[in-house]
What we know:
Layout: H1 2-36, E1 44-51, E2 54-62, H2 66-69, H3 83-88, H4 90-100, E3 101-105, E4 108-109, E5 113-122, E6 125-136, E7 143-148, E8 160-166, E9 169-175, E10 181-185, H5 191-207, H6 210-226, H7 230-234, H8 239-272, H9 280-299, H10 307-329, H11 336-365, H12 369-396
Helix pairs in contact: 1-12, 5-10, 5-11, 6-8, 6-9, 6-10, 6-11, 6-12, 8-10, 9-10, 9-12
Amino acid sequence: MHDSVGKCVSFLVALRLKHFLLGCCAWLALGALSTSYAHQTGNSYLNIRQVDGHLAVDLDFYVRDLGNLLQKPGKESDPPPTADQLKSLQEPITEAIQKSLKLEIDEHVMPLAFTAQSVTVHNDGLYVRQQFVGPAIESSAKFVVIRYEFFTQNDRLGRAFLRLALNGDEISSVIDQSNAVQRFALGETKRISTIFLFAKEGAKHIWNGADHLLFLITLLLPGVMLWKRRADLAIADEVPSNIRVNRQAEFFALKVITAFTIAHSITLGLATFNLVSLPEKLIESLIAFSIMVSAVLNLQKKYQLNHWQLAFGFGLIHGLGFANGLKDLGLSSSYFLETLIAFNVGVEFGQLSTVIVVALPVVMLVRSEQNKQRIMVWGSLAVLAISTLWLVQRLLA
């Protein structure tokens, strides 16, 4: 009877573990597909400033999104428009922008007149830039309202990165579907709101960037596997010994996270000050390679490399990836240092929150050493497969 119950319990635990592993693999696979196109989320860049006292507007639209802008969506596999095709599309693009982008200053509508169209490049690809000029701006202007009406009901990922520089005031913001209408007061202190914005964007950069998180989680996996639940400690024969194991696991995680944080903070700062620069393709490929290395390290026992040193070394590369995201957002020159620190703090919050969410279920669900080993092996194999796919895609892109 006891043997039957024991077998039943073992079967249920194994079944739960199997479902958990399948769920992890499915989550990782979805992450792979989404991150392959992580930078192709319909972003646009809106720059509003003064030129000779008049309103000047630059709007950069992702070339692959022009079908949606013109309400003529094509297939994902369709090639981007050629230079001649973009030239022929100038008038309908202008008409769509003038219809959906509305600016008001002190409750006066600012009509926009088209001046030029060109092509520019951002980190995620080719953009078409249209430039407009508007009326003169009074030095006493106090309020600016931006109505960005390009978002559709299903467009939940697209964002417009805004830079507003009028009458000596500089403001950075992000426009999305839930905040398509934004109002700004000129001449007031924007320090707190700007810092909060960059901290939030730092966290979003992590939550939307599965590659950075996957690298950190893969390095932390051996430490998570060391952890023992308090209930297990209570019934253990050598409680002090097991407590020491938990302390080792905590110290392991602390060293890895600290090393990664210090490293990416260094290169994030250096890249922001334009002291270090590498091609975007090389950075993204090295990030994928770093995940492959961390997965292979978990699968072998012959070479005992130090995880925190690996986290520091590859963290320098990941910092350059963070810097690209920050450059796209656009640092505020008025609060340069504050926004740089705020973005980095947001990155740290995004990392820690996700690691906790992922680590806790593993600690709670996995008890036996055999199951821990399965998590380590199958999880690392899944990560290796995904990171290899990323590397190939990024090298061929």
